Structures are given as structure tokens and as C-alpha cells.
């Protein structure tokens, strides 16, 4: 199981938002520009979790995330475009016999990929397998700077 340390930024209506710096593996990923194209704030990931009593804004918490959930997420994000492209190409070229089927299959892939990401974000994130589990809380409450977490990736919160 992967462990991530982040900071609780918002607590509202029974939910809390945890801001986690990008993982160590992100530095080696060739596709990291896709994750950080929207500016410096995208160097963090936000998790929306059910509020647990005793946690306050500013607390640093350690989350545990199933590796199988991370693998399945990566497969959906990076594998589904290939499958969708091949399926749309074969359908358009062989079944419907549409001229310029390559162009139409790229368009169909883009549309179906957007729908796939939207639906998977809506449905899969609600499954317990995809929910991070809180395994440690460090009650700081004093506005600890999130960059301190980034500088100390081996930080382990008290359990």
C-alpha cells in the first residue's frame, strides 16, 4: 500500500479536502506535463474524504492508498485511449465503411475517452477500494506550510 502525507485544507459539510504533494514517481514519469499543465497548484493532488472527528484544518495526515486502485486508475487513464481508438477504427472502417475512418476514429476516441474519464471519476471514486484510508494524524493546527511536507517525503505522522 502506498502512503502519502498531506495537509487538511478545508472541512465543510461532513467532508474534508486533503492536499497532497505529487509523489516521488512523478519525477520519472514522461507524462508529468499532462498533470502539471495548469500551473504550480497542479503539483498537488486533492483528495476529498469523509470528515473524521478530531481532525482540524491545518492538520497533517497520512493516507494509505491501495496499489491495486492506483494500477487500475493508471490503466483507465493510459490504456483506455488505445482500446477506444482500436475499437472505433475497427467499427468505423469495417462495419460502417466510412471514408476517412482514421480521422473519424480519432474524433470518436476523444469523445469516448472524455466520457470514460467523466464516468469513472463519478463511479469509481465512490467505491471503497478507491478511497484513501487515514492511518495517521499529526495535529498541527498552526498553519504548517505544505511545502514542509514536500521537502520531507519520508515524514511519518503519529499513529
Chain-wise SSE layout:
Elements (H helix, E strand, L loop, with lengths): L1 E11 L2 E7 L10 H4 L8 E7 L9 E6 L1 H29 L5 H23 L9 E6 L7 H6 L8
Antiparallel strand pairs: 1-2, 1-4, 2-3, 4-5
Would you mind describing this structure in some detail?
- The chain has 159 residues and is an alpha+beta fold.
- The protein has one domain.
- It has four helices and five strands.
- The protein has helices spanning 32-35, 67-95, 101-123, 146-151, and strands at residues 2-12, 15-21, 44-50, 60-65, 133-138.
- A hairpin with a 2-residue loop joins strand 1 and strand 2 (15-21).
- Helix 2 (67-95) runs antiparallel to helix 3.
What keyword list fits this structure?
159 residues, alpha+beta, 5-stranded antiparallel sheet, 4 helices, elongated
* Overall 3D shape: elongated
Structural class: alpha+beta
Whole-Å distance between the termini?
A: 16 Å
The amount of beta strand, in percent, is 15-25%
What is the N-to-C order of secondary-structure elements (H for helix, E for strand)?
EEHEEHHEH
Total helical elements: 4
Q: Are there runs of 5+ residues with pLDDT below 50, and where?
A: 142-159
Largest sheet: 5 strands, antiparallel
Compute the number of structural domains: 1
Task: Summarize the amount of helix as a percent range.
Answer: 25-40%
Radius of gyration: 20 Å
Main sheet: strand order: 3-2-1-4-5
Please state the average pLDDT score.
Answer: 78
Number of strands: 5
Give a quick rundown of the structure.
The chain has 159 residues and is α+β, with helices and mostly antiparallel strands. The chain is built from 4 helices and 5 strands; from the N terminus they run ββαββααβα.
